[in-house]
Amino acid sequence: MPCNRVREGVAVKRVLCVCLGNICRSPTAEGVLRGLADARGLEIAVDSAGTSDWHLGNPPYGPAIRAAAGRGYDISAQRARQVSPADFDRFDLILAMDADNLADLERLRPSANTTPVALLAGDRDVPDPYYTRDFEGALDLIEDAVALRLGQLQNASAARPKSR
Ligand code: 4NP
């Protein structure tokens, strides 16, 4: 899980992006989140996973890699993995790409775990470009949603009292 360490210290947030196959939307969201966090000097650890095991160990889908590269995000080194119950303890925030992913995640959640799980785009799904073929549209939505999420994370960390 590469981490944007832009200043000394421990990562303030660990974020997991989740979709179905972990080869289109969530790798793209991971790359955009890492890229925009870096650009803002934010220290965030980012990873992604799929609810299915269909593409374990595979790189992101070629058209997704190319669309992301066109906007300056290199997601080619990512490899698909399946989300596990242990991820609920490893991450501070889990962002689902659609309502099906969200429901699957809630079924996987260990009892007593309270990690926030939410749709990346707030109140809407990121349509799956594996089926729609609209990779640019998915990127538009993911970039806008990630920018909003980063603003929320920045506000939350600004409002939190310093621990020392
Ligand atoms: P993703 O898209 O969930 O955004 O990675 C998919 C990729 C592959 C498949 C389904 C969704 N598939 O059926 O193989």
Bound molecules: 4-nitrophenyl phosphate
Q: What is the class in the CATH system?
A: Alpha Beta
Residues in β-strands, percent: 5-15%
- The ordered H/E elements are EHEHHEHEHH
The helix count comes to 6
Number of strands: 4
**Unreliable residue runs:** 3-11
Instruction: Classify the fold: give the CATH topology.
Output: Rossmann fold
Characterize the biggest β-sheet: 4 strands, parallel
- Indicate the CATH architecture: 3-Layer(aba) Sandwich
- The assigned structural class equals alpha/beta
Mean pLDDT score, rounded? 91
Domain tally? 1
Terminal residue distance = 27 Å
- Percent helix among the residues? 40-55%
Within CATH, the superfamily carries the name Response regulator
What is the rounded Rg?
A: 15 Å
Order of the strands making up the biggest sheet: 2-1-3-4
3D shape: globular
Can you give a write-up of this model?
The chain is α/β, with parallel strands linked by helices. It has one domain (6-155): Rossmann fold (3-Layer(aba) Sandwich), CATH 3.40.50.2300. It is built from 6 helices and 4 strands; from the N terminus they run E-H-E-H-H-E-H-E-H-H. It has helices spanning 25-40, 62-70, 87-90, 99-108, 129-132, 135-159; strands at 13-19, 44-50, 93-96, 117-119. A 4-stranded parallel sheet has the order 2-1-3-4, with helices on both faces. Helix 1 (25-40) links the parallel strand 1 and strand 2 (44-50). The longest helix has 25 residues, at 135-159. The two termini are 27 Å apart. The structure holds 4-nitrophenyl phosphate. 4-nitrophenyl phosphate binds at residues 19-25, 54, 128, 130.
